[in-house]
Design a protein that fits this description.
The complex is a heterodimer. Helices cover 55% and strands 5% of the residues of chain A. Chain A is mainly α. Chain B has eleven helices and five strands; from the N terminus they run αβαβααααααβααβαβ. The chains are: A mainly alpha, B mainly alpha.
Chain lengths: 546, 368
């Protein structure tokens, strides 16, 4: 096959038909090479392939698209005879969820909810890419033990976090779109894998933007979706953050995303229309989690009712109810209406981030705060803790990233909180900034109340590790120390009162759990003094270089 | 026959399985699949998993339901994965010293380079196919030897190990037969499990199974020997020659015969001359006359016999011919299909997986 032939063909007909086209500005050389190599091989081995052997040519999606376009444009071109069958590998959500669920089958508790949740989270994090499934599963591993054993033993604990439920909820919305008639027809078989791939690309647009920066609103319309699909079909990477407000077509003619080269790959207009309908449904479900919950079960019930005389598939209905129960409807701050708020101009604003932390863009209409929490807050204790963390050169976000704190405080900036708290006396109570600072501080206090004693122990261990390693002329980074600690120190689960394992007590020389820091200012002072007076044990020094 | 690992099966997986089954049963002569997807989509995993599933099922069926396997010529088949890196199929072979000497000008070098590239794909396919076959046979031999609990067991395990090494060095049919015999699998072959194709499991088709499997070992030997010959072509340069010198031997015999007859003739002439002289001397009662007549007869006889010997030497013919068998890489064009057919006759259906075609970024058109 002549790759140049594909690129040289004008796309006038396509443009006249209303299908805008684009050609990637990168990756052409790779496609040319792949196409030329496959053409060479097939030419040389034609008789073997036709009469003797079973040949599987494994190529990338670009080559598939190119062959598809070439065949579509010509009347039985040479490329039409190259392959007996052309397959585009595409995993449907159900494939990957089933696979992930199988991994944890045999869990002693036989917790169906945990299994379903695990499958959904893996599917969501992998974005339906099989290679990323392995990476998503690896993220669950906290020790060196065998993966399956870890999953089976710790699955309940691993999946209790609300951020897991939130990720699963977003994946459930995608699943629901795919399974809803009439969209489900396209996904029942692999008769049109190119369409399936485009739809998957489009449906993961919102999750990708959410994961990249949940604080930035995105503009979403049919044109933006078309650009996203073309970009992923062509495999070309443009600069700039996708999905940002103002980056859509027509917003900036100089933007390479907004000015596609009208040649090469096309999207049938009918397909684009259907895909946009799917995205609109997805937006509706993500805007209202209650609607998503209802849709999951209603669809199954409607399906059963549409088959008069047939027995109701109870297993399927039970499965749907389990999925319904997974949908997250409340956070630590109160009820959560949905993931996004859709504006009239097509702007989508995220209400929470991936860690289930409420964002500034959210309003009281979506998230109702627990007013009682404010009464529990001890501002002085918070301020002392902030100073304490600073004394050991560890910031709160780092601690949260390594699961020392609950994820609700993961993205908080300590300096912002401190500054806001400092200004609180000089600012009117209804000021938005103060309101947010109070909310963040409240969340921090709540988190520290739960894990405070364990955290103080962990900080002591960290300080020891840091000093001891300094004695050995090693300068570990915070990340290295925290990773080491996380791997060997299981965090107490919620509701256990922050119990500290005996091994830690032995390490720190404490006979009993330390007092909860945020409820006892004296404890903070004691801890600070102990830390300052800490003398590292005599450790063997590294041998001097000869 | 280990359990298949967990694997996310896309819809295309089942279509591939179905075509692999049809190929193994000879319903399809050849097939070319384009399997595309994003990097990390699981293309290689899917293909290898499909082949593995087919292979495992065939091995299980050979024990539990032998008739389910009957396909190509009513004989069992299972897939043999032959994995090849795409780039290697287009990289030209290194020219031989002779080719380098011949390619003195650029035009000739270009022609030779193109030819070398054309051959490269066949050479790489042949090598990969032989290696895959050798690996399969060696593994099967080890399986049989390990399963052998008789007194021959230890010896057969050693033989199986030796066979693995021998397969690295292009064995001929005689060598292979020796090993099959030592392993006790000359008739039933190595490629299927020891307990496979038990007639009692084959129900009403038991006779059919028994008949078709009775020469399995020989078909395997033929397949491996054929593949080894083709592999030999790729592994090095060999020339076969045969010189027939039978005509030279015949000439030597003829010369000896001539000398004996000459001796006999000369003795006979001498005897005739003596007899003639004696007769005349007695009849004429004169010794000088008799002596003269005897010498005259002897001289006449001697002249006659000398002329006769000279004519015989002139008719001698010498026949001499040389046969050179073509074992060049160009012959792979016809050797490779034969190799595939014989491997299929032995019960293995080669599936060529040409991988990493999406990693050819650095291979530009100018390279070719």
């Amino acid at each position: 096959m002549n790759a140049g032939k594909v690129q040289d063909e004008p796309a006038e007909n396509e443009a006249q038909a209303g299908n805008e086209t684009t050609k990637p500005d990168a990756g052409d050389e790779a496609r040319t090479s792949t196409a030329a190599v496959i053409e060479d091989i097939i030419d040389r081995l034609k008789h073997l392939i036709a009469d003797h052997g079973f040949f599987c040519f494994l190529a990338d999606r670009n080559y598939y698209e190119m062959i598809d376009q070439t065949i579509a444009k010509g009347s039985y071109p040479t490329e039409h005879t190259y392959f007996s069958r052309r397959i585009l590998i595409l995993h449907r959500p159900a494939d990957l969820i089933t696979y992930a669920e199988q991994l944890v089958q045999g869990h002693p508790t036989e917790d169906a909810l945990a299994h379903r949740l695990f499958g959904l989270v893996v599917a969501y994090r992998s974005r339906m890419n099989f290679a990323d499934v392995g990476r998503a599963i690896d993220a669950f591993i906290t020790t060196d033990e065998h993966l399956i054993e870890i999953l089976r033993e710790d699955i309940d604990q691993l999946l209790t976090g609300r951020e897991m439920r939130l990720a699963a909820t977003v994946q459930l919305a995608i699943n629901e779109v795919i399974l809803t008639p009439p969209f489900d027809v396209h996904f029942r078989s692999d008769s049109d894998p190119a369409f399936m791939q485009m739809a998957i690309d489009a449906l993961y647009f919102i999750p990708r933007a959410w994961a990249r920066d949940a604080r930035k609103p995105i503009t979403l319309n049919e044109t933006r979706i078309r650009e996203e699909i073309l970009k992923r079909k062509c495999g070309c990477i443009h600069g700039g953050a996708e999905g940002e407000v103002g980056s859509g077509s027509g917003a900036d003619p100089a933007d390479p995303v907004a000015s596609p080269d009208p040649d090469g790959i096309t999207i049938p207009s009918d397909d684009l229309s259907v895909i946009w309908d799917m995205v609109e449904l997805q937006i509706a479900l993500l805007s209202d989690f209650g609607k998503l919950r209802d849709a999951i079960v209603t669809r199954i019930e409607a399906k059963n009712q549409s088959l008069p005389g047939a027995e109701i598939d109870k297993d399927e209905l039970d499965r749907a109810k389990t999925f319904r129960d997974i949908v997250l409807t409340e956070t630590e701050m109160g009820q959560l209406k949905g993931l996004i708020r859709a504006g009239h101009d097509g702007t989508l604003t995220f209400l929470v981030d991936e860690n289930c932390l409420a964002l500034l863009g959210g309003s009281d209409r979506e998230i109702s705060y627990d007013e009682n929490l404010k009464a529990k807050m001890d501002k002085n204790a918070i301020a002392r803790l902030i100073q304490l963390f600073a004394s050991v050169n560890i910031d709160l976000a780092t601690l949260a990233r390594h699961q020392f704190l609950r994820s609700t405080v993961q993205l908080m900036n300590l300096s912002d909180i401190a500054a806001a708290l400092g200004e609180s006396d000089r600012t009117r109570p209804r000021d938005e900034r103060l309101r947010r600072a109070e909310h963040d501080a409240q969340t921090l206090a709540d988190a520290l109340n739960a894990v405070g004693s364990w955290l103080s122990t962990a900080l002591t261990i960290l300080a020891r590790l840091r000093k001891d390693m300094s004695e050995l002329a090693q300068t570990p980074s915070n990340d290295e120390l925290l990773r080491a600690l996380v791997r060997h120190v299981p965090m107490p689960s919620e509701g256990t009162g922050g119990a500290v394992p005996p091994a830690f007590l032995a390490m720190t020389g404490q006979a009993a759990p330390l007092p909860i820091l945020t409820l006892n200012t004296d404890a903070i002072d004691t801890f600070s003094k102990a830390l300052a007076a800490y003398a590292p044990p005599a450790l063997p020094r590294a041998p001097a270089a000869p | 026959m280990s359990a298949s690992p967990l694997f996310a099966r896309p819809a295309a997986y089942y279509r591939l399985i179905n075509d692999l089954r049809r190929f193994a049963q000879d319903e399809l002569t050849g097939r070319s699949y384009l399997i595309a997807g994003h990097r990390g989509a699981g293309k290689t995993t899917m293909v290898l998993q499909a082949i593995r599933q087919m292979r495992d099922k065939a091995l299980q069926d050979s024990v539990n339901a032998p008739t389910a396997l009957l396909g190509r010529q009513s004989r069992p088949q299972r897939p043999l994965v032959v994995k090849i890196v795409g780039r290697s199929l287009i990289e030209p072979l290194a020219p031989t010293q002779e080719e380098r000497e011949q390619a003195e000008n650029k035009e000739a070098a270009a022609t030779q380079g193109h030819q070398a590239m054309a051959n490269a794909a066949l050479v790489r396919l042949t090598i990969a196919l032989y290696r895959a076959l050798a690996r399969e046979v060696a593994a099967a031999a080890a399986l049989h030897a390990t399963a052998d609990t008789s007194l021959h067991g230890p010896r057969r395990r050693e033989v199986a190990a030796q066979l693995a090494l021998v397969l690295d060095a292009e064995p001929d049919a005689g060598q292979l037969r020796h090993y099959w015999k030592l392993l006790g699998r000359l008739d039933r072959g190595l490629l299927w499990p020891p307990e496979a194709f038990a007639p009692e499991k084959a129900a009403e088709k038991g006779d059919l199974v028994r008949r078709h499997m009775s020469d399995q070992g020989f078909r395997e030997i033929v397949a491996v020997a054929t593949a080894a010959q083709a592999f030999q072509i790729c592994a090095g340069q060999i020339t076969y020659s045969r010189i027939d010198n039978q005509a030279a031997t015949d000439e030597s015999t003829l010369t000896t015969t001539t000398k004996i007859s000459e001796l006999v003739s000369r003795v006979a002439i001498l005897f005739a001359g003596t007899a003639a002289g004696a007769t005349i001397a007695v009849g004429q009662n004169s010794l000088p006359i008799g002596l003269g007549a005897g010498v005259l007869v002897w001289l006449l006889g001697a002249v006659t016999m000398t002329l006769s010997t000279t004519r015989t030497r002139n008719r001698t013919q010498k026949l001499d011919f040389t046969f050179l068998r073509d074992r060049s890489i160009q012959t792979l064009d016809r050797e490779l299909p034969l190799m595939i057919d014989r491997i299929r006759d032995a019960g293995l259906a080669p599936v060529f997986v040409i991988d990493e075609l999406d990693k050819l970024d650095k291979v530009g058109s100018s390279d070719r």
